[in-house]
Design brief:
Length: 438
């Protein structure tokens, strides 16, 4: 077990951070803020300094924000050695060594793994390499898609109705482009908010001219003789003539490089304990190795310690802070990570925000405002307790709901809100069974 303290760290101590994005940067800043005087090396597989990802599916695509304006603000002088455009390829826990794609080997005293996720690709044999098929995850993806959308393609097809897919559909309509959104589930945001709230999103999309195809999947993309995308074949037998396709089918955790390391890592993420310390395949703490951000699976106190991965901006920041603090502390001073997830999305002029874990909810109830006007708050319940809340253009109320979630308040909630609906009725949240246990 690590027994460091911020006073006891030697100046020749070397901390390596794998992942040069939000979590990695904020962790490095937190280390310096806590007076860590040793060496910090930050390794990133992209050639860019850390940048903000949320605008990539929104303001960058509309042209409102140039891609050059997306770098993250440096809040501290991290005084780090940056190794960018180079991927980590292997980890030797015993030797405390990291192998890199450029052949270099880095020795570390402590390691933070913040390798995040990548977009799930479309299979090549089903048209994934055609000119006109795009992913959207990194700066280059967003810039290339922005340039293509600016050429005013005839019709855009989006495969996947999660947050990224819905946001890009909104952008396309803002750009006055025809757009078809194909979603496997019964509604958009089925996996994130459930079909009850998702049906409201579906109505919003249709009112803004989106050709929404639910309970449907894309079978394949097809191109012309020059390899340019020209159509999509759907599972219902229909064919859609398209010029651009955007694949938004979720993310893959970047853990393949950890195979053979002995760590508890697989396609679901990298397992850590409540102090952000990585576990090995036998469930034992690995000394001096921590994790944070999208790649981390951690025991969530809101759901009986079940392991979850939270791929949201706020979690990356908070978990990086937690990991950095514990890296510099004696074990007796470790702080448990008690984060309550929060996320937001802008679609069709509506600001959707949520706190807690909606996809762990069994029931949902509109508690304030008007669904018809897309200005409301809904609370999610699980086993008689409030587990989450979502707001449409009513984000100012979420802090109060966050407190209810922290306190384990009963569901249905006992509110005295002036804008409470007359007949508050709980209904099934409508999640896929697998999402509630992800």
């Amino acid at each position: 077990m690590s027994n460091h303290s911020s006073q006891g760290l030697r100046k020749d101590e070397h901390i390596v951070i794998v992942g040069a994005s939000l979590a990695g940067l904020r962790a490095a800043e937190a280390l310096r803020r806590r007076d860590f005087a040793g060496q910090i090396t930050i390794v990133g597989d992209e050639k860019y300094a850390p940048y903000d990802r949320p605008p990539l599916s929104k303001h960058v695509l509309t042209g409102h924000l140039p891609i050059e304006h997306t770098p993250l603000a440096m809040l501290e002088d991290v005084r780090a050695t940056w190794i960018l455009g180079v991927a980590a390829t292997a980890l030797d826990v015993e030797q405390r060594q990291l192998s890199l794609s450029n052949g270099e080997r880095l020795h570390f005293d402590q390691l933070l793994i913040a390798t995040g996720t990548r977009a799930r690709p479309w299979p090549e044999e089903r048209g994934g390499k055609l000119d006109g098929v795009f992913l959207i995850r990194d700066r280059d993806d967003s810039q290339q898609l922005r340039e293509r959308l600016a050429r005013k393609p005839g019709r855009v097809l989006i495969a996947g109705g999660g947050f990224i897919g819905c946001e890009v559909a909104s952008v396309c309509r803002e750009l006055d482009l025809e757009v078809t959104l194909v979603e496997r589930g019964p509604t958009p945001l089925y996996g994130a908010l459930g079909s009850s709230m998702g049906s409201i999103v579906a109505r919003l999309q249709q009112q803004h001219g989106v050709d929404l195809r639910t309970r449907t999947t894309v079978e394949s993309f097809e191109g012309d003789a020059a390899g340019r995308l020209c159509r999509a074949r759907l599972s219902d037998g229909s064919v859609v003539e398209i010029d651009v396709a955007i694949v938004a089918l979720g993310a893959l955790h970047n853990t393949e490089w950890l195979q053979g390391s002995g760590l508890a890592a697989d396609e679901r993420g990298l397992v850590c304990d409540t102090y952000s310390r990585v576990l090995d395949a036998q469930g034992q703490v690995v000394e001096g190795i921590f994790t944070a951000g999208d790649v981390a699976r951690w025991p969530q106190h809101l759901c009986d310690g079940d392991l979850i991965a939270v791929e949201h901006w706020g979690n990356a920041v908070d978990q990086a802070e937690n990991a950095a603090g514990n890296m510099l502390s004696a074990e007796t001073d470790y702080r448990a990570y008690k984060h309550i997830p929060a996320f937001w999305s802008s679609q069709f002029g509506i600001n959707i925000k949520a706190v807690g874990l909606p996809n762990r909810g069994d029931e949902v109830m509109v508690t304030q405002g008007s669904v018809e006007r897309y200005r409301f708050v809904a609370a999610y319940g699980r086993q008689g307790r409030i587990i989450a809340a979502v707001s449409f253009d009513q984000g100012r109320w979420l802090e109060a709901y966050n407190t209810l979630i922290e306190e384990g308040a009963t569901y249905p909630p006992q509110l005295a809100a002036a804008d409470q609906p007359e007949n508050m009725q709980s209904q099934p949240a409508g999640f896929p069974a697998m999402a509630r246990h992800a």
